Amino acid sequence: MRYIQINPGDNVAVALTDLKAGEVVSGISLCQDIPAGHKLTLKDFKAGENVIKYGFPIGHVTRDAAKGSCIDHSCIKTNLEGLLDYTYEPSEVVLAEAEASPRQSRSGLASLRRAPASTNLSASAGTGLRTFRGFRRADGQVGVRNQIWVIPTVGCVNGIAQTIATRFNQEIEGKRGSIDAVVAFPHNYGCSQLGDDHQNTRTVLADMIHHPNNGGVLVVSLGCENNQLDAFMELVGEVDPARVRTMTVQKVEGDEIEYGLQQLREIFAAASKDEREDIPVSELRVGLKCGGSDGLSGITANPLLGVFSDWIVEQGGTTVLTEVPEMFGAETILMNRCQDRATFDKTVSLINDFKAYFMKNDQPVYENPSPGNKAGGISTLEEKSLGCTQKSGKSVLRDVMKYGERIHTKGLNLLSAPGNDLVASTALASSACQIVLFTTGRGTPFGSFVPTMKISTNSRIAGLKPSWIDFNAGVLAEDKPMADVAEQFIDFVLAVASGEKVNNEKNGWREIAIFKTGVTL
């Protein structure tokens, strides 16, 4: 297959491989070369006419375009506007599923039926309750890793935190027990911040302390920062003192590194004895993210995540979709899948509040896609959003969370966070997702503080960057059946949840980034 018309109502098709001028596509002789991922016209266009992809308008052409020509960002303009009023229009199917339990819901099977090829998962993946091997914590949460984290309250002690973690990793080499990593998470914040910025820093760091992927945490404070240790630990709340220790380096007499190492030794004594056990998939919480997207993102990797999301929700588990600016233009699809009017109202606020944030800062709401997106074939924000939201599958939307809020509703959730890859992935992890699934057509190497699995939208980037990409969804553009690929993907995700490392972990690439909106003193 060299091209695809995604929806019967589309007036453009997408090249799945480089097409040359003169080739005949769907009975049309191409006027010009069409790069892979880019759109080719199936009709003659007049200036101002809408371009239809995924069955929805993705903008209008700014000049006439002949049948068989390339439509890209140079000749298409968004139709989107600022703040909007919305009406809740759920289907009868959504209302019926909203009343059903996840295991009674048929959304996962529906998403498989929409796939273009064979659509039945085998019994091993599609029926029965699946399990993974995880760590059951005292508070009832389940981790997919057993790590010790060193968390600075302020950027001033980043170096000390990193030195403590490096030294302790060396000390326990060969006698780790069940501890798979000791990691410091430096950041630039914790002082000279005001308002929401200060609160965001405190909230995300507190979320990390409560995250089930850690078996213990050492909190390192300087002593004079805005994020004062005593007040911060009040926000954190109740913890196990055998597993969560603190130190204020300005108050340590003598060698603060040795003091920190002694704290880690005591944490290690408790955490290294933890063992994996069989856990039902209903305890798995997975973040859904895309970045460096291309024209195949909405055809291969993002629909694969949609099938996975529907499957895990049907198993009683949880998925979380974020990057709110990349919902603009596709938000009504999500709104009309809300379980009730209250969830719809929260979704409307999620969208309009983020638009207001852009407008408050005198920035255009629709200044998207990025240069890399455009080079990959995405021309407008509507086009990007319609592809992006496919990661959510077709399940009923159960809840909407604020930035920094932790999951408290199983099923499909939305989370307030920007599109920035590391900020959004950190927000997903902070919400208590144990894994982030990250689709990419251009490639990206980073990792957040949980396993950050890279799923390529095309086979070219998978072959070019095997040390970045963990799973190749590009085979879906090469006639591999969705059901077969989905089954392999489910097995791989459960293997990662059971301890198999993804590339960001193998490379030691783990970072955090906290959302900043205001003034730094």
Describe what you observe in this structure.
The chain has 521 residues and is α/β, with parallel strands linked by helices. It folds into 3 domains: 3-77, Roll (Archaeosine Trna-guanine Transglycosylase, Chain: A, domain 4); 142-271, Rossmann fold; 279-506. It has helices spanning 92-98, 107-113, 123-126, 158-171, 195-209, 229-236, 256-271, 301-314, 331-335, 341-360, 371-376, 381-388, 421-430, 459-464, 482-497, 503-506; strands at 3-4, 12-15, 24-25, 28-29, 39-41, 50-53, 56-61, 70-71, 76-77, 131-136, 142-143, 147-152, 181-184, 214-221, 244-248, 277-280, 285-290, 318-321, 397-401, 411-415, 435-440, 452-456, 471-472. The strands form 6 sheets. A 7-stranded parallel β-sheet has the order 19-20-18-17-21-22-23, with helices on both faces. The radius of gyration is 24 Å and the shape is globular. The chain starts with a strand and ends in a 15-residue tail after the last helix. Residues 105-124 have low confidence and may be disordered.
